[in-house]
Amino acid sequence: MSSNTPPVAKKVPTKRIHHGDTVIDEYAWLSNKEDPDTTAYLEAENDFLKQQTAHLSDLQEQVFQEIKGRTQETDLSVPSRKGAWWYFSRTEEGKQYAVSCRVPADSDAPPEITPGERLDREQVILDGNELAGDSPFFSVGASSVSPDGTMLAFSTDYKGDERFTLKFKNLTTGEVLPDEITDIFYGGAWSADGSTFFYTRVDDAWRPFQVYRHALGTQEDVLVYEESDERYWVGIGLTRSEKYLVLGAGSKITSEVRILDANDPAGEFRVVRPRTTGVEYGVEHAGDFFYVLHNENAENFELATAPLDDPGTWTPLIAHGEDTRLLEIDAFSDHAVVHLRRDGLTGLRVLPYGSAGGTWRERVEASERNAYEIDFPEPLYDVGPAGNPEFTTTRLRLAYTSMITPPSVYDYELDSHELILLKQRPVLGGYDAGDYEQFREWATAEDGTRIPVSIVKRKDAAKPAPTLLYGYGSYETSIDPGFSVPRLSLLDRGFVFAIAHVRGGGEMGRRWYEEGKLTRKRNTFTDFVDAARHMKASGWSERIIARGGSAGGLLMGAVTNLAPELFAGVVAEVPFVDALNTILDPSLPLTVIEWDEWGDPLHNPDVYAYMKSYSPYENVDGGPYPPILAITSLNDTRVLYHEPAKWIARLRASASGGPFLLKTEMGAGHGGRSGRYDAWREEAFALSWIIERGTA
């Protein structure tokens, strides 16, 4: 095959009729993963991609070396205290995966650790490199130490399909127990005494729907909960206080919580409050009461309290605010911390109980009167709680970053209100934050809504400049202004990097999300187009390359249909581009759960027509399209590989422009390749393609 001859996917017309609409899908056969023709086609696409991008090999290697050269390969995390131990992780030069370690806690001060040096009495808990062996893919789904610090529950995945095998390790002897449980989901929770571990299983649609109880040393696990409603996921956790097991069931719009005394793992879970459609809530144990964060008659959520013996009776503490979205509550013995979002930025509100005596209700009311927010100086940043496993503490561990400040770990001293920097991720190679600037602009959407756009560039970058514009815009997920080492390879070549905080995300509160879902989903796409137009009209950008992944890949497909002339290139990673066909098929992973996000086109003709109007695969036309690079993984369980494969095939057959390239990782999942060096090479490949498109 010559470099100028792309693969041609055979056409096998498959008829689909919904709500009186007849559609022919020529590439539906690609969804058969076991068909040798499917494998042959994907491999032919990979060969074509290699030929088309061979000239980028030197640039790709250069970018990879830049990423590697800016990264302190032998490094470690900040130790975090839990019980009698300080826990931390190491990375070592030349090794793909982190090593989890701990040392005895001889004092309240964390140990001084030097990268590359071992501590006396240091214990390796889990070595990802040893576990991975020669496997091309490796992932840990759970790594949980029992409350008494003697046992480790850990689960592993060697395919990328997010089906894990659970094992247990005695941390005193180093012995791995014979107990082994296959085909489980992420996470899990210990009972208070460490005798029992709770875990979840998924159904055929990849929905976690069952919670099991495993008593160490036994073979017959007990099903403690099964969720029959296909719209709901389940999960299990242990409160920070280690007093309660919390079993949550939730759809996209509704939740229900059950609790159990963690000292009675064989007991019966009790419902906090029965599910009510549209009401989401979470429960946090705070000693002699519960905090409840909920959205009942509170779009941006309200913080309430509830007695232990009647957790379904909620008394407001922090009322709903139109300008502030309450994200989560962390409770400790003497204070609580609210993670919030306002004006497109995250923040932290501290509620100190202080010396207030009396009832628990009097203490929490005093905490709200004395509440305050922690100030941060940069115009753009992202902050949140991080690594706070101890219930009784005088410090709050938090993570902070911005588009020019590398990820930083602080301890906030509650008594003195002092922020103590414990570690800032080293950026080697002479990085100087003073060489760069970050700021926010506001694009105007077609309906008059102001769309925030976060921008970072070198101060000496020319204007206009080639621009990478990133977007997501689904599930109330916020793409916050954070730091990226690989991004420096763009900025130092004169690129502008921008994030379009489009509706459908959560950057501006719950209403921002509501205005970009269901039958208002088109706002997500038109917001991104308007952000791109703003970048050009304001003089910042000339050639714009758009990038997004997963649901952000749907965004990429939609905007290339809406305004292909705006973009010099598009990178769509694990893209959800065959949205209508996927959401029509309840047998596919996660489809029924997704109906609350996208609507139900199977039973509702109006939703069907609306989704058909924007689904990228359905709307490819014969006009010119920009060059497109689609990246997927064969074992992805969230966005199946055939979506981008079908999309690229239809673009190549029906559209002009391009070229249209497909890259399939044949041994990875939704997150791509697992090892850090492999991931750096994959990012270097994408960046080299972006650089060429931006400077062509």
From TrEMBL:
Record protein name field: Oligopeptidase B
Keyword Heme: no
Domain Peptidase S9 prolyl oligopeptidase catalytic residue range list: 483-691
GO biological process: proteolysis
Organism field: Nonomuraea fuscirosea
UniProt keyword annotations, A-Z: Hydrolase, Protease, Serine protease
Source lineage: Bacteria, Bacillati, Actinomycetota, Actinomycetes, Streptosporangiales
Record-linked InterPro entries: AB_hydrolase_fold, Pept_S9A_N, Peptidase_S9_cat, Peptidase_S9A, Serine_Peptidase_S9A
Segments forming domain Peptidase S9A N-terminal: 6-425
Keyword presence, Protease: yes
Gene Ontology MF term list: serine-type endopeptidase activity
Family: Belongs to the peptidase S9A family.
Superkingdom assignment: Bacteria
